[in-house]
Each structure stands twice: as C-alpha cells, then as structure tokens.
Amino acid sequence: MSTATNSTRIYAQNMTEMAQTIAASGQQTPLVVGHTGSGKSSLLVLLGKIFPDHTLCYFDCNTKDMGDIVIPDIQRATSGDAQCVRFVTNEELGMHHNKPIILMIDEYGKANQAVKNALARVIQERKCGAYTLHPDSIVFATTNLGAEGLGDSIKAHLYNRITVVELAKPKWDEWIEWGINNNIHPTVLGWCRNNDKAFADFRDVKEPEGNDYIYHPQSVRTSFVTPRSLEAASGWLHKADVLSNKSLTSNLIGTIGAAAGGDLVAFARLADQLPSIESIKDNPDTALVPTNVGALMMVVYKALATLQRDWVNQWMDYMIRLPKEAQGVFVNGVRSDQYEQRTVVMTNKKFTDWAMANNYLFTADKK
Q1: Pairing state of beta strands 29-34 and 162-166?
Q2: Are 314 and 306 contacting, i.e. CB atoms less than 8 angstroms apart?
Q3: Which residues contact 316 (CB under 8 A, 6 or more apart)?
Q4: Residue 164: helix, strand or coil by DSSP?
Q5: Pairwise CA distance, residues 144 & 289, whole Å
Q6: Of 303, 243, 296, which is closest to residue 273 (Cα–Cα)?
Q7: What is the CATH number of domain 6-166?
Q8: Whole-structure pTM over 0.90, yes or no?
Q9: Kind of pairing, strands 55-60 and 70-72?
Q10: Cβ-count burial of 302 within 10 angstroms (0-12 exposed, 13-18 middle, 19+ buried)?
Q11: What values do phi and psi take at 71, rounded to 5?
Q12: Where is 166: in which H helix or E strand?
C-alpha cells in the first residue's frame, strides 16, 4: 500500500510547516512521508528548538524486532510471590523519562509487521506495556514514499490511527537558505542555484533518462542527488585541499552520481575566478570581481556563510561593485529569518544606506 496519495502531494508541507503541524499534533500522531534523503530526520532537531525543555528521542524501526520493544524485567518477575511479569521498554522510546518528550519513530513503513503492531499503542494511546508518556509528549513517525519502491507499506488498521502528511521535497532556494547556515560549501550552493533539476520530483519524470541527477525507481543508479547526498558532497569539497583531483572527482561521483558529480567538478573549477575573503577584507575596492554568473553566486554564498561584524563594511564596499542581481541575492539571504548574522548585517549603516538607495528591490515583498 502506498504511503502517499495525489491529495497528500498537492498539500505537501515544507519543513517549517511540517514542524508546526507536529508541534500542534497533541495526542494525534502524524506520519510524515517523503523522498529519500529529503531531511525527514531533521524535523526532530527543528522540534527541539520549538520545545527546548522536551527530551528528544529517536526510535529507528530499521534495526528493531519484536523483542526490541519490550522485554521481561527478570528481577521483578522472580522476586516475592508476584503472579505477573512486568515488562520494561526500549530506552529509545523514552517511556522512562517521566517528563515531556518528542518521540520520532523513524522508518515506520519499513518495520516488520510485529514491530508495527507493537508500536500501535504508542502511536494511538501514548502507552507501551505499563508505561504511559507524559501528557505533553509529542509523537510522530516517518517513512518513505511508497512510489519509491523501498519497501514501505502499512496496513489499513494502522493507517487509521495516524494522520498521513507528505513532506515536500525542498526547492533549490529553500535548500540554499538552509545550506548557508549549515556550513555547506559555497561551490555546492552555487551549483544548486544553476541546477534546479537536482531538486525535481521523480514522479514528474516519466523515464529515468529524463533526469540523470535524481533517484528514480525505474533506474539502477546507486548514487544520486538528494539534500542528504549534497551535504555529503559538500563535506568532500571542504577536504579538497588534501585530495587529488582524481580522488575528489571519484568521491563526488560516488556520492551524487556520475552526471551530477562530473558537473559539480566542472563547476568547481570556477573557484579559480573567486577573490579570497582576505582580499575583500583588505582591498574591497580592487578585489577581483568574477565575470561568470556562477562564480558571482559562489562569492555571494561564501560571504553569507562567513560574514562577521568586523568586515561587514568591507563587504558592502565590495558588494556595490557586483551586478544588481548578485546584490539582490545577498540581501535576500540576509533578510531570511533563518540567517544567523541577520541582525549584525541589517543594523550596519552601510547596509541600511544601501537598502534605502535600492528600495525598488523590495517592492515585490510589499502587500
């Protein structure tokens, strides 16, 4: 049975919306279905920020069998004249905390049927054996799209206990916004801006050959582009100085696939056109300005990722030498609620002067 329908896809929620849905779920359990490597596990981190006093608990169904849910408490079972056996739960379920928790039941659709059945009461009643979760606890589950063909299936009587919601695959701009604040290599960010097909939904691609970057259930690709594998590719680029060109290329191909890996290597060669951050700090009026659009975007993303209070002035002096589009990309990045240096930049006088002089760039945002 599929874990998503056309209706759930139409109303698919982004990461922020999904975190809000789970936060408001109360005693109802959302089942989050989404593409492989799309960031479902990151929801637990987002929820931890919303509920800092809750204990985060992660239960991985992939590694569990029935005996991993509850086991007899041998000490209690053999003491005194007791006529019953008490069971204790797996600590990953968090039942022992006696305070509010956020429980993520990961890969629920891939669990064997006995595990699914054993978790049914946790999902519906917040109970397991003799244990009951704190009433302020939050429980949600995740699984892959059934159409991906990865073995996710859930029977109707278990579906009836949950709310099925689809997590939208992030668009390139959403992922770049996240990447700026999570140490993603500027080369990867620039490449993503130029390759929105890397974020396409396979359900919109009839034949695998129609998009050689992404996972497709009809293909035999072992490596492909997902948000998760892009983060891994970023890790290899951060280590490029200790790798040969051959090793780097091989590693990228093995991480995001032959087509995307080869293209990313070619794009990375634009790095030779980039000014160093030191040159921008020391000589913003003469530092190199790239002529290639991709290289320009890499400069902007690198600045967003590394900018600190002590060189915002120098950056603003350099930025006004860039094309208006590149300036707009920087400013939109700064204005994001997720940008860590937002206040530092937006309270800088040179930035506020620039914003007043270029107010037309914000016209589209006005209601």
Answers
A1: parallel
A2: no
A3: 348, 350, 351, 354
A4: strand
A5: 44
A6: 296
A7: 3.40.50.300
A8: no
A9: unpaired
A10: buried
A11: -135, 155
A12: strand 162-166
Helical ranges in the chain per DSSP H = 6-10, 15-23, 42-50, 74-77, 113-125, 156-159, 172-180, 186-194, 227-238, 245-256, 258-268, 277-282, 293-306, 312-319, 324-335, 342-346, 349-357
Q: Hey, how many other C-beta atoms are within 10 angstroms of the C-beta on 160? A: 8
Residue 351, SS3 per DSSP: helix
pLDDT mean for each 10 residues of the chain (367 residues): 69 95 96 94 94 96 88 67 75 92 96 92 91 95 92 89 95 93 94 93 93 94 96 97 96 97 92 88 95 91 93 96 94 90 94 85 44
Q: Residues spanned by CATH 3.40.50.300 within the chain?
A: 6-166
**306/186 Cα distance (integer angstroms):** 10
SS3 call for 59: strand
* Token output for 138: 């939050």
Cα–Cα distance, 314 to 285 (Å, whole number): 9
- Give CA–CA dist 172/198, Å, rounded: 8
pLDDT in tens, 264-299: 999 998 877 889 999 999 999 999 999 888 899 999
Structure tokens at 269: 């060669």
Instruction: Determine what percent of the chain falls in helix, strand and coil, rounding each to the nearest 5.
Output: 55, 10, 35
- C-alpha 167/C-alpha 11 separation (Å) is 9
**Which pair of tokens denotes residue 264?**
């990313």
Return d(Cα 255, Cα 8) in angstroms, integer.
30
CA 132 from chain centre, in angstroms, equals 31
Q: What is each CA distance from 195 to 211, 264, 327, in whole angstroms? A: 11, 10, 20
Question: What are the strands, taking DSSP E only, across 97-157?
Answer: 101-106, 127-128, 131-132, 138-144
> Do the Cβ atoms of 305 and 186 come closer than 8 Å?
yes
In angstroms, the CA 18 to CA 142 distance is 12
The one-letter amino acid code at 6 reads N
DSSP 13: B
Q: Residue 7: exposed, middle, or buried by beta-carbon count in 10 A (0-12, 13-18, 19+)?
A: exposed
Q: For the CA atoms of the chain, what is the radius of gyration? A: 24
